[in-house]
Design goal:
single chain; 414 residues; D-Maltodextrin-Binding Protein, domain 2; 2 domains
Length: 414
């Protein structure tokens, strides 16, 4: 292959990408504006939503018989509960909807018996539609108040008998999470960032791949290249490098903007006391491994995108291939983020799945160099396989000219 020819094709494709302002904004520039705005908006909406849930007043109906009881008085002290008294029938209780709760409390006489008789038990029933976030929040708040009252009664019964609180809790369990801050942050980001990285790489690759293959077929410029003294391998190499370049730029632009936005968002949420919850520090070797895996993923996705969309005869037809190809990327990546998934010798052989698991382990700092190496080797193999597919399609006259393709001949080499 002649590298000056490859360089000429590469530069020609990159120039066309730079001329396409829509592509430039979508793939490269938009991430630097999208994520800061998105995270800031999400933070403000989330904060406002939490404040509303914590401060908004909802209607709480208490059974009339409990009016004046100690438990009713405890609930009345909560300013977010608008207390009224009424006794609802069973059909009314079961059909409660909206921002409303019905609480059936014991009467004052029943509470007196509870405090006087050490064997007495009372019941509290709470009815409401937990489909409303605020209803679920108030239900939990009321439950905590009732349980706190129950503990006071229990401790008083123990005191009367000369027993301490530990009598009902003879075993005290102490738990300590020994995970490092990096491990905690890595587990959180390791399930999200690999998926988003692969998606960004795919988006960066697929649209330029469509334009440089099916788009050129539709404009009849691809066939013109084949009339020049340029080999098929040189055409593939030049176009592939252009597609891979845009994929890498898209991935790193989105990743940089995403991480920066997350840091800014956490800084705004932090109260300045103690370490930040976003404590992810990567060493030089970790970053190099991630860059290597991203490059290998780009090689595979760029080659696969080019080889598949070249089968289309128009830009519109090629867009129909985007969703199936995206599923090939997203489904393994999403499964890799599920609980219990680990990088092993067997999972290191599954394309896309292995890359997500490997990056997740690197972010958490718990990776095995041997498994990462195996993952890289298989990722390289799949990348070369993708290039082989691209070579078969670019080297087939029927594919290039838009005629009916015989897939048996396409992959048999005839």
């Amino acid at each position: 292959m002649r590298f000056p020819i490859i360089n000429s094709i590469y530069r020609k494709e990159i120039r066309e990408v730079l001329r396409d302002k829509r592509m430039l904004y979508l793939v490269i520039l938009m991430p630097f504006f999208l994520y800061p705005v998105l995270f800031t908006l999400m933070g403000k909406v989330g904060a406002n939503s939490r404040d509303k849930i914590n401060t908004e007043t909802i209607d709480v109906v208490i059974n009339s018989e409990a009016e004046g009881s100690e438990l009713a008085g405890i609930l009345t002290e909560d300013s977010t509960l608008n207390i009224t008294y009424a006794t609802l029938e069973s059909n009314e209780r079961d059909s409660l909807s909206g921002k409303k709760l019905y609480v059936k409390l014991p009467t004052a006489a029943e509470l007196e018996r509870l405090n006087a008789d050490s064997n007495a038990v009372v019941a509290v029933a709470i009815y409401g539609d937990d489909g409303e976030d605020i209803v679920g929040n108030r239900r939990r708040r009321i439950t905590e108040k009732m349980e706190a009252y129950g503990k006071r009664v229990t401790y008083e019964r123990l005191r009367v008998r000369g027993l301490g609180p530990d009598f009902v809790k003879p075993v005290n369990v102490f738990q300590q999470d020994t995970a490092s801050e990096r491990s905690v942050a890595g587990r959180l980001l390791g399930t999200m960032i690999p998926v988003m990285l692969l998606l960004f790489i795919f988006i960066g690759c697929i649209y330029i791949a469509i334009d440089t293959t099916a788009g050129e077929k539709e404009r009849r410029t691809l066939q013109t290249i084949y009339t020049t003294p340029v080999s098929t391998n040189e055409i593939i190499a030049g176009k592939f490098l252009a597609v891979a370049t845009v994929g890498l730029v898209s991935a790193f632009a989105n990743l940089s903007s995403l991480l920066l936005s997350m840091r800014l968002q956490v800084s705004m949420m932090s109260d300045g006391n103690g370490p930040s919850p976003f404590s992810l520090s990567l060493g030089g070797a970790d970053i190099l491994w991630i860059i290597l895996l991203v490059i290998l993923a780009t090689i595979f996705l760029a080659a696969l995108s080019m080889g598949v969309v070249l089968l289309a005869n128009s830009y519109k037809e090629a867009q129909g291939y985007v969703t199936p190809l995206m599923m090939i990327v997203l489904i393994p990546a999403i499964i890799a983020g599920m609980p219990g998934m680990e990088l092993t010798m067997s999972t290191a052989m599954i394309p896309m799945f292995n890359l997500c698991l490997a990056m997740s382990d690197i972010f958490s700092g718990t990776y095995s160099i041997s498994l990462i190496g195996v993952t890289a080797l298989f990722a390289l193999f799949y990348g070369l396989f993708g290039l082989w597919i691209a070579g078969r399609t670019f080297g087939n006259e029927s594919v290039v000219t838009g005629e009916k393709v015989d897939f048996k001949n396409l992959f048999s080499g005839r």
